[in-house]
Amino acid sequence: MMSIHTSSDIILVRQAVRQMAVELKFSLVEQTKIVTAASEIARNTLDHGGGGTVKMEIINDANRKGLRLTFEDHGMGIADIDLALQDGFTTGSGLGMGLSGAKRLMNEFEIVSQVGVGTKVAMTKWK
Amino acid sequence: MEKIPFLQMGEYLLVTIQIDMHDQLALTLQEDLTNKIIQTSARGVLIDISSLDIVDSFIGRILSNIAKMSQILGAQTVVVGMQPAVAITLVELGLSLTGILTALNIEKGMLLLQAQATFPAKSQNKYTRQ
Q1: How far is Cα A77 from Cα B108, in angstroms, rounded to an integer?
Q2: Distance between CA atoms of A48 and A118, rounded to whole angstroms?
Q3: How far apart are CA B65 and CA B30, in angstroms?
Q4: Looking at the partner chain, which of B64, B84, B89 has a beta carbon nearest the beta carbon of A36?
Q5: Which CATH architecture has domain A2-126?
Q6: Those residues with Cβ within 8 angstroms of residue B31's Cβ, 6 or more apart along the chain or in another chain
Q7: Which is the CATH superfamily of the domain at B6-128?
Q8: Per-residue model confidence as pLDDT tens digits over B51-94
Q9: With an 8 Å Cβ cutoff, is B97 touching chain A?
Q10: CB distance from B27 to chain A under 8 Å?
């Protein structure tokens, strides 16, 4: 578990995620996709969630391993998740590709959010 | 405070991004570079990103902004040296880096800038996809 409270924390998260992806022997392209997705969601956690945490875990199902990243914040929440997942939707400093882009880069992507309570994003890349 | 250094080569500026930029540093780069363009009357800017192992939408936006700002100040920007894995990821992420000229390496980027100065309209494909 790592906390995300400054933009330097985003770099630390990227490095930690990269290290786990290397340990799981993901290819360089897959590593790059996972780290990029992590960077996008970590930035959302910081900018829109007012900071939060990320849990990084190696998970197993019957015959494969995966890397699961769970980001949680207690910020303002997202009123319309479908809208937030559209390409080009932006409220802040990015290009509006954060959520939709991260979803494309991972295999599984789940987002739960409640206005005024917070947001949780869980995403997995299978090996 | 950390800074990203610039090299001046004639009428061009070379910026090599070698560290994992945090957000404030990226914004500082944007500001320093625009100031430097005015100080040196640079006509072109080469940004070498061969050391970057990811480009996310934030960095993409910074690169786009730099390209637009330098264009307004009379300098063309070429982003060079993108790693293949980064290019693949960018496409899937959905970033098109519209308005940014790219080249494989510094040498080709330089040729592109020189060609831009002579034939602004048609030079792009000639040097970017060799």
Answers
A1: 46
A2: 10
A3: 8
A4: B89
A5: 2-Layer Sandwich (3.30)
A6: none
A7: STAS domain (3.30.750.24)
A8: 999 999 888 888 999 999 999 999 999 999 999 999 999 999 98
A9: no
A10: no
For residue A14, the chain B residues in CB contact (below 8 A) are 20, 54
Question: Domain coordinates of chain A in residue numbers?
Answer: 2-126
Enter the tokens of residue B39: 């100080």
B24, B53, B57: residue with CB nearest A94: B57
Q: What is the pLDDT along chain A (127 residues), one digit of tens a residue?
A: 999 999 899 999 999 999 999 999 999 999 999 999 999 999 999 998 999 999 999 999 989 999 999 999 999 998 888 888 887 776 655 556 689 999 999 999 999 999 999 999 999 999 9
Tell me how close the Cα of A100 comes to any Cα of chain B, in angstroms: 8
CB contact under 8 A, B92 and A40: no
Take residue A3 and report the two structure tokens written for it.
Answer: 């906390």
